[in-house]
Design brief:
Blueprint: H1 18-25, E1 32-36, H2 42-51, E2 54-58, E3 73-79, H3 87-100, E4 101-112, E5 121-125, E6 128-131, E7 136-137, H4 142-149, E8 153-159, E9 170-177
Parallel strand pairs: 1-2, 1-3, 3-4
Antiparallel strand pairs: 4-9, 5-6, 6-7, 8-9
């Protein structure tokens, strides 16, 4: 256990996130959807509801719905969750996503890439940093995301998207389930 075990991200969004907007524009959100790690991203959930058959939220810190993990989904969206978790928690969440995905389903997992303001870093912890607002952050490369996902997913493809204009790059992986 680390000192950051239950620290969650503190971003309060006022509009749909860039990764979710990209997925909707490309018509990748379909069928029954799990918004895993939904946090306070009600704008993302609302936008997904408009294009999906159904949307279920699960976030242990904001909208704890463990029953949601007992169902299977066509699409799972998880934005900026893995980069906020220490390695042992990250493995658990990746397994939850893999287990909740239908065999023919797709998971879209977005993480933070370059652009973490080093002035906000207090200390190095495991494979990331503790920030001045008390959160854990890991900055990913595309290969690091693939490496984290490859034990649970059969096919992983990095989807290119445009940055959000403030110097922070995001990386989205499309992951297909392993045969079970």
């Amino acid at each position: 256990m680390t000192e950051l075990q239950n620290i969650c991200a503190k971003v309060m969004r006022t509009k749909i996130s860039t990764p979710t907007r990209m997925l909707i524009k490309r018509k990748l959100i379909k069928g029954d959807v799990l918004h895993h790690g939904s946090g306070t991203a009600t704008y993302d959930t609302g936008a997904m509801i408009e294009v999906a058959d159904s949307v279920t939220e699960h976030d242990p810190n904001y909208n704890n719905n463990p029953e949601a993990l007992n169902k299977k989904y066509d699409t799972i969206v998880s934005n900026y969750v893995l980069n906020c978790l220490v390695p042992e928690e990250r493995k658990q969440v990746i397994t939850e996503i893999s287990n909740a995905l239908k065999p023919s389903g797709k998971a879209f997992i977005t993480v933070r890439g370059k652009g973490l303001n080093r002035n906000r870093v207090i200390s190095n912890i495991e494979d990331g940093v503790k920030t001045s607002i008390g959160t854990f952050q890991k900055t990913y490369t595309p290969q690091a995301l693939i490496d984290d996902l490859k034990h649970n997913f059969n096919s992983i493809k990095i989807i290119k998207g445009k940055g959000i204009g403030i110097g922070i790059m995001f990386i989205t992986a499309e992951a297909l389930n392993k045969e079970k």
